[in-house]
């Protein structure tokens, strides 16, 4: 288990204490800002963002594929939504088709940007993050414009009289719009490796957009929209906390790798210095005296003793 304790002063420093069984009790410092979780060192922060780029591009590509498939399925449904002979319904249908076309255009542009390596390789990691969030922000209001009820409300029509007749009775609900918003929130927070502070605009806009459409224009759920808003807000908050926790662990892992590499480089440097020092000391040392000679002080070396020299072999033990 890890316990985070904020340090003193600005920028804040998180100190990670490993308290699990068998864990190292030495305290490791994660030098980041308290709110944004950015590394205080600009180069480390840039490396962290750059390390997430490839996964961001790959995951965003598959999200764009799913978005395009969903848009194509809705493109088949929207033009044929009855009734077809009512001017209000035709104008509302046109608004929904424009919103749907905008979603398809965003999906196609995203596919081209992430599918071609020549384009994605030139994208700066920060630009890729901002572009991904910008598309999410662009999709938030379009979700409501593609809904039969809210599209009619935006044009000032009564949804019941616009789409209903003696044979067809529509039961409108916020379920589809809220589910679509929830998918966008979960996709950006769990699928895309984006920094949590970058996702803050989407979180705020998603909650405010539903509140505006449901309470200003008037939602189909009536007073139940309050409970829906509270539940959706709780979903957004939990997603933000989860994204922040994941990012914290990612940054802690990166900091640990950097520390290990720094210690390894420092150890190799010290070892290299010791080797150079030993080589220079060996070069300055006088050559060893020959066998049977003295070292200049009148004392013989061990390797010059009679029993260890060729003279001893020639003389033998003196018994002959």
From TrEMBL:
<feature type="transmembrane region" description="Helical">
    <location>
        <begin position="60"/>
        <end position="81"/>
    </location>
</feature>
<protein>
    <submittedName>
        <fullName>Uncharacterized protein</fullName>
    </submittedName>
</protein>
<keyword id="KW-0472">Membrane</keyword>
<feature type="transmembrane region" description="Helical">
    <location>
        <begin position="178"/>
        <end position="197"/>
    </location>
</feature>
<feature type="transmembrane region" description="Helical">
    <location>
        <begin position="93"/>
        <end position="115"/>
    </location>
</feature>
<feature type="transmembrane region" description="Helical">
    <location>
        <begin position="204"/>
        <end position="219"/>
    </location>
</feature>
<feature type="transmembrane region" description="Helical">
    <location>
        <begin position="127"/>
        <end position="146"/>
    </location>
</feature>
<feature type="transmembrane region" description="Helical">
    <location>
        <begin position="225"/>
        <end position="242"/>
    </location>
</feature>
<keyword id="KW-0812">Transmembrane</keyword>
<feature type="region of interest" description="Disordered">
    <location>
        <begin position="276"/>
        <end position="320"/>
    </location>
</feature>
<keyword id="KW-1133">Transmembrane helix</keyword>
């Amino acid at each position: 288990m890890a316990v985070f304790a904020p340090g003193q002063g600005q920028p804040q420093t998180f100190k990670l204490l490993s308290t699990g069984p068998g864990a190292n009790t030495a305290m490791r410092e994660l030098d980041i800002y308290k709110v944004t979780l950015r590394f205080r060192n600009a180069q480390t922060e840039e490396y962290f963002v750059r390390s997430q780029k490839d996964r961001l591009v790959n995951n965003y590509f598959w999200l764009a594929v799913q978005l395009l498939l969903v848009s194509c399925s809705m493109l088949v449904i929207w033009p044929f939504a009855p009734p077809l002979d009512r001017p209000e319904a035709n104008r509302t249908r046109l608004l929904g088709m424009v919103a749907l076309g905008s979603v398809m255009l965003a999906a196609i542009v995203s596919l081209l940007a992430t599918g071609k390596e020549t384009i994605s390789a030139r994208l700066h990691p920060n630009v890729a993050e901002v572009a991904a969030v910008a598309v999410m922000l662009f999709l938030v209001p379009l979700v409501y414009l593609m809904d039969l009820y809210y599209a009619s409300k935006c044009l000032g029509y009564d949804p019941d009289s616009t789409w209903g007749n003696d044979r067809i009775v529509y039961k409108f609900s916020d379920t589809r719009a809220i589910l679509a918003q929830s998918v966008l929130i979960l996709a950006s927070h769990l699928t895309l490796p984006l920094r949590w502070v970058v996702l803050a605009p989407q979180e705020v806009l998603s909650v405010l957009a539903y509140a505006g459409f449901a309470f200003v224009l008037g939602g189909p759920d009536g007073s139940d929209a309050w409970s829906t808003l509270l539940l959706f807000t709780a979903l957004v908050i939990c997603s933000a906390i989860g994204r922040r926790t994941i990012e914290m662990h990612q940054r802690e892992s990166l900091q640990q790798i950097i520390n290990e590499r720094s210690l390894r480089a420092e150890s190799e440097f010290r070892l290299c210095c010791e080797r150079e020092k030993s080589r220079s000391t060996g070069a300055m040392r006088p050559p060893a005296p020959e066998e049977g000679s003295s070292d200049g002080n009148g004392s013989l070396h061990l390797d010059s003793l009679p029993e260890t020299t060729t003279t001893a072999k020639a003389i033998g033990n003196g018994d002959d």
